[in-house]
Design a protein that fits this description.
The longest helix is centred in the middle third of the chain and has 26 residues. About 11% of the residues have low confidence. The strands form 2 sheets. The chain has a 4-stranded mixed sheet. A 4-stranded antiparallel sheet has the order 2-3-7-6, with no helix packed on it. The chain starts with 6 loop residues before the first helix and ends in a 9-residue tail after the last helix. It is an alpha+beta fold and 454 residues long. The protein is built from 12 helices and 8 strands.
Length: 454
């Protein structure tokens, strides 16, 4: 497929650019995205960021590309190329990281495939209006890369018709702001691994039953959280995909996680690289041959990642329109999608907002080529980490100084390049570590002998 922008796409671009120029102004202009940031980062006025989500919803800009077979849910129709256009214009406007990313790009496509009519009618419109925010309850302290080892339990109360959830989740992005959480929990007593799991939609406003504890990061922010469930209640009608079928639903969600947001990510990367290059020119660091070579290499590798993303998107079809094509839906994996040796299904953990929505085409990788997302993760994780190192290197000794005098009231101030360096240290760990991605490629693509699991 020739991935190109036609006249309709350019008209759509003009509409998007004009809307952003008019609405991303006034009080919202203070939310302009800074380099080195993260969509879920706990910086900025969170009240204003929630208001911005509602502004996007009012404009119909949330849920572009959702399957509209069962209704529009308040969002506008958009082709794949128009979704890319919107993503590009949004990133170029410097608009803030999306608080609604998890609900819009992860839960909504999952409900369109696995949810019933009542669930879609209840949850999709508030997401499209930017009114309800979501977080994801997957990882646990002893079940991160090995998700199938999770121990959070949900017990059905036959009298009340509810589930009582007890356990702990960790690395939960935006749990401190979320209104709802989709939780993967064990609902069958004595079940093991991927068997006996269920996918539940849980309201977060349950004092005494749900506790959120922020996890402070190197950057001084706390976008990730621990979440403790102590008898938290989920209604039976908020069970998605049927009792005991949570693994199937969870793998389907992972399969659609990587979408047009790949290009958004790369546009942000390009903006960060441009700032580093400008700084290198201003400081004279670009005169140093080895550093100049590294800058050129970063530029070339980013171009290669972009063209690869466009190639795979150009071959893609909407995965929510035909879920049977997804191997994770057809045949749930006996091992975990984050386990070093999963056999089928999605092959990565959930980083906030990072992934490719891919489908197979002639000669193109897709869900039936489980190595594709692992290769993509290895490429962008290492690339972004090296960019953080470059950002510090071009500043030299000045990189050790904060942007302002440290005081008791403001003891930990960082500039954009310092945040980029510190946060990018995690890029090769979250979303499935580099070691896990290489093992997936070795065992599932190259068919090398499997590693011992003892």
């Amino acid at each position: 497929m020739d991935f190109a922008f036609g006249p309709e796409d350019e008209r759509f671009r003009t509409e998007a650019r004009d809307w952003l120029a008019e609405h991303f102004a006034g009080p919202f202009a203070a939310l302009k995205q800074e380099p080195g940031g993260h969509p879920g980062e706990a910086r900025g006025d969170m009240t204003a960021r929630r208001a911005w989500e509602r502004e996007l919803g009012t404009g119909g800009w949330i849920g572009l590309g959702w399957d509209r077979t069962d209704g529009a849910y308040g969002n506008r129709a958009a082709t794949l190329t128009q979704q890319v256009v919107w993503a590009e214009e949004y990133a170029r406007a410097g608009a803030p990281g999306r608080l609604g990313h998890i609900g819009e790009n992860l839960l909504a496509p999952t409900l369109l495939v696995h949810g019933d009519a009542a669930q879609r009618a209840r949850f999709l419109p508030p997401i499209a209006r930017g009114e309800e925010l979501w977080c994801q309850g997957y990882s646990e302290p002893d079940a991160g890369s090995d998700l199938a080892g999770l121990r959070t339990r949900a017990v059905r109360d036959p009298g009340e018709g509810t589930y009582r959830i007890t356990g702990q989740k960790i690395w939960t992005s935006l749990a401190h702001e979320a209104d709802w959480c989709f939780v993967l929990a064990r609902t069958e007593e004595g079940s093991q691994r991927h068997h006996g799991l269920s996918f539940l939609l849980v309201p977060m406003d349950q004092p005494g039953r749900i506790e959120v504890r922020p996890i402070r990061q190197l950057t001084g922010t706390a976008e990730f959280n621990e979440v403790f469930f102590d008898g938290a209640v989920a209604r039976a009608e908020h069970l998605v995909g049927g009792a005991g079928h949570g693994w199937r639903v969870a793998m389907s969600l992972l399969a659609v996680e990587r979408g047009v947001s790949t290009l958004v990510q790369q546009i942000g990367f390009a903006q960060e690289l441009s700032r580093v290059v400008r700084l290198a020119l201003e400081t004279g660091a670009a005169e140093e041959p080895v550093l100049r070579d590294r800058l050129i290499r970063q530029w070339a590798e980013l171009k290669a990642m972009r063209w690869n993303a466009l190639r795979t998107l150009g071959a893609a079809q909407n995965p929510t329109a035909n879920p049977a094509r997804d191997s994770a839906v057809r045949d749930p994996a006996p091992n975990d999608a984050r386990d070093p040796a999963p056999r089928k299904g999605a092959a990565h953990d959930l980083p906030p907002g990072s992934a490719d929505r891919q489908a197979p085409g002639p000669g193109d990788p897709g869900p039936q080529d489980p190595g594709a997302p692992s290769v993509a993760k290895l490429l962008w994780g290492g690339w972004h980490q090296r960019l953080g190192e470059l950002a510090v290197q071009v500043r030299g000794a000045a990189a050790a100084l904060g942007p302002a005098r440290w005081t008791a009231g403001r003891p930990y101030e960082l500039d954009a390049f310092q945040r980029l360096f510190l946060f990018s240290r995690a890029d090769t760990i979250y979303g499935g570590s580099d070691e896990i991605q290489r093992t997936i490629i070795a065992e599932r693509v190259l068919h090398l002998p499997k590693e011992s699991r003892r």
